[in-house]
Amino acid sequence: MVDQTTEQTTVMATPDACYEAAVDFERYPEWATDVKMARILSRDDDGRAVDVEFRAAAMGRSTTYTLRYFYGSNPRRLAWRLQRGDVTRRLDGEYEFLPVASDPGSCEVVYHLAVDLSVPLPGFVKRRAEARIVRTALEDFTRYVESRAG
After folding, report:
1. Residues near 24 by beta carbon (within 8 Å), at least 6 away in sequence
2. 91-115 burial, b for 16+ CB within 10 Å, e for fewer?
3. Beta strand pairing status for 103-117 and 77-85?
4. For the chain, which domains are there?
5. 88-100 and 103-117: which strand pairing?
6. How does 54-84 read in b/e, with b if 16+ C-beta sit within 10 Å?
7. Is the pTM for the entire model greater than 0.85?
């Protein structure tokens, strides 16, 4: 069964600064609590990362997965789909970085995630894992981006 969630938060940085941090995959281990390694496997003709392999801590063990990133025509949206994973069948999602009309130095970050694990787990364990992923995606991301924005 696929679990899905959408969360949002306001970051005190511009949408461009948020987007730049989100596509700087090789720096994820510096700010994303559970990400231990991020390695770009392929790039598109514009030099943007397409396939990225990650190693992360998950549920008391290490997991490895590869995500394919899609940039599309919206410069404030970043989507991904799972290509390979050792404990996941699906790990698809997207970030959207929306300007805040009342504060041009802020950004509304919308994060959507769909997860399907290949190992059966009790519901409360799945929810805890999902909450941890979302926390990293929003809280750790916010701290990192705001510290760079100074």
Report:
1. none
2. bbbbbbbbeeeeeeebbbbbbbbbb
3. unpaired
4. 3-149 (3.30.530.20)
5. antiparallel
6. bbbebeeeebebbbbbebeeeeebbbbebee
7. yes
Whose tokens are 């995630």? That residue is 113
Distance CA 91, CA 53 (A): 13
Give pLDDT tens digits along the chain (150 positions): 567 889 999 999 999 999 999 999 999 999 998 899 999 999 999 999 999 999 998 767 788 999 999 998 888 999 999 999 988 888 899 999 999 999 989 999 999 998 877 666 556 555 666 666 666 678 999 999 999 876
Other Cβ atoms within 10 Å of 4 Cβ, number: 13
